[in-house]
Amino acid sequence: MIANLRVIRTTFELDLKQQAVDLFMIFGVVIQPLLIAIMAIYMLSERDASRGIYVVVGSGMTGLWTSLLFRGAFNINAERFMGTLEGIVASPSALATVVIGKTLASVTLSLLSMIFSYGLASLVFRLPLSVAQPVPFLLSLLVMVPTFIAFGLLISPLMAVNLSLSGWVNALEYPMYILGGFLFPILLLPGWSNPLSYVLAPYWAARVLHATSSGVATPADVLLSWAMMLLLGILYIAASYRLFKVVLRRARVDATLSLM
Amino acid sequence: MNAIEVRDLRRVFRATIGTIRRRTKEVVAVDGISFDVRDGELFGLLGPNGAGKTTTVKMLTTLLIPTGGTATILGHDVVQGAGSIRPRIGFIFGGERGLYWRLSAKDNLRYFADLYHMDPDIAKRRLPELLELVGLTGREDEKVEGYSRGMRQRLHVARCLLHDPQVLFLDEPTMGLDPVGARELRQVIQNMVSQDKTVFLTTHYMFEADALCERVAVINHGQIVALDSPEGLKGHVEDLSVIEVEVFGIAPAMVDALRQMADVDTVSVEDRDQKQSLRIHSPLGSAIVPQIMQRLDGNGARVGRVTVREPTLEDAYVRLVGGEV
Question: Is B49 helix (H, G, I), strand (E, B) or coil?
């Protein structure tokens, strides 16, 4: 157990070091959320200045999702391209522990998106940015982190099953912005699409963060979102456990651990 | 006791070809090979490119599931007992990949120490020892992307030895290294055996196998065509002489014509800038030279220097793989 925690910690630390110099990650975590925040602020400024915090949280969520999706999709494939996947698989550590460390690094970096968006909206656009219910808001962030790690655990082996699947990552980025209710409520969407949102942990995270930051969250709302995040997190972990076994077995049969 | 036992090991790769009419093509990479490697032995697997060396190593290191047959490492099956094998083996695959280029050598080693669940105190003590062993002391904080090929290969060696494995698999470890770097690495490999480790080495350099290995298996087209000590392998060409002929721009059909000659055992061709060197094995020695010259002249080939010499270990290898070098 301690050895596995050490693997997660070292993976987290070294992955942060590598991501910090990755220009694509800098774009996804810093530049893109800023662009989305600027666009959303102009769109909403005519309507209601108090919507600033909604924009900050929403654009922060877009950065979080972009980072989680792309890093999740390429976590295993990047190791394959570097030739390090064989070294990891041939070690006594489970591949999942490495993916947990990497996803934790991605989530940590992504939370910076919210801080950047917050700074931009408050300093440059001088919008009122107080979080109405700070304690439930911060607790929701804490619940969100393990849930998002579980989501990353699901994405990584899914994308590693087949190299060509990773090409679909781009197509998955924007639908989540909409289905997750990051920048506007899903009530604006057609009713048939709502069940899709309900099985996505990012939707529940966005819902509770928006509600607590805007001050409209009831205790029942908060508890429902937390329960859904945890429930979906457990389901993602259960599915990923099976997926990791299938992926590793298939990779050893199909000779795809390396690009030999 | 045997550290490695291989019985009828087989691996078939399936590739899909065609766009609309997709068909599956099967390629037999390893075709029913069997051998044992004793505890503490330095065993060589020698063969030309594409002979099945790397596929064999990947199956023995649990990274590839065999299509047929069995293999055990330290008594554990490579498929069922992979979890028991992995902490006790180390491997190096030739080439520069397999390391984190954006990290320093020290970070790379620290990470693999954790992946192998090493005690942090032991890892901390072992890291400088290994860096010293592979000659990277003083460069350990530099990023790997700034390393030369030789330095990366030495870092691979340090990574491989980090968790003190009992069995080491070295797949063409000196590939691409300069002569000095390759010699230093061979010295490190010899030191591994003196520390009672079992080493399984693949190479296509005969002299390397000759210098290092107690026994050598020669593999070609996925099958083992000979298994003996280096001295024993030399016995395969005792009856032959080697005729080396320099030619300029010889056609493949001409080489085939030479192969068809009576009393010619094997013919191999090596490209050397503008010219080629033909190596012809024959039991007749210098007596066959006039026939060869006649055949070459008759086809308009420009011929340079001709020499006749006694066979070496490399010639034994060439004969065993049918001239495919």
Answer: coil
Highest-scoring range by mean pLDDT, A12-21, A75-84, B4-13: B4-13
A88 and B100 within 8 Å at the Cβ level: the answer is no
Q: Do A6 and B65 touch (CB under 8 A)?
A: no
- Report the residue of B53, B64, B91 to disrupt the A interface, i.e. the one with the largest count of A CBs within 10 Å: B64
Write out chain B residues lying below 8 Å of A89, CB-based: 63
Give the pLDDT score at B324.
Answer: 54
Consecutive H or E run containing A21: none
To test the contact with chain B by mutation, choose from A1, A5, A6, A79 the residue with the greatest count of B C-beta atoms within 10 A, namely A6
Question: How much of chain B exceeds pLDDT 70, in percent?
Answer: 99
Asked if the model's pLDDT at residue A49 lies above 90, the reply is: no
User: Closest residue of B to A2, CA-based?
Assistant: B117
Average pLDDT rounded to a whole number, residues B9-19: 86
- B163 and B285 share a domain? no
Query: In this predicted model, what pLDDT tens digit does every residue of B57-69 receive, in sequence order?
Result: 999 999 999 999 9
Backbone angles phi, psi at B169, to 5 degrees: -115, 120
Domain of A210 in residue numbering reads as: 2-254
Same domain, B46 and B116: yes
B57 and B42 in a common domain: yes
Question: Do B14 and B84 reside in the same domain of the chain?
Answer: yes
Q: Is the pLDDT of residue A260 over 50?
A: no
Nearest to B300 by CA among B266, B243, B254: B254
CATH of the domain at B275: 3.30.70.260
Q: How many CA atoms lie within 13 A of B296 on its CB side?
A: 20
- By the CB < 8 Å criterion, does B116 face chain A? yes
Residues B158 and B210 in one domain: yes
* Total count of domains within chain B: 2
- B71 or A149, higher pLDDT: B71
Domain presence at residue B325: no
Query: What is the tens place of the pLDDT at every residue in B144-154?
Result: 999 988 889 88
Q: Are B2 and B36 in contact (CB under 8 A)?
A: yes
ipTM: 0.82
Q: Which residue in chain A is spatially nearest to B63 when comparing CA positions?
A: A252
Domain span at residue B184 reads 2-228
Residues of chain A neighbouring B112 (CB-CB closer than 8 A)? 87, 91
**A260 found inside a domain:** no
The CATH code of the domain that includes B10 is 3.40.50.300
Does any CB of chain A come closer than 8 Å to the CB of residue B64? yes
* Sequence-separated contacts (24+) of B79-84 with Cβ below 8 Å: B83/A92
User: In the A/B pair of chains, how many CB contacts fall below 8 A?
Assistant: 84
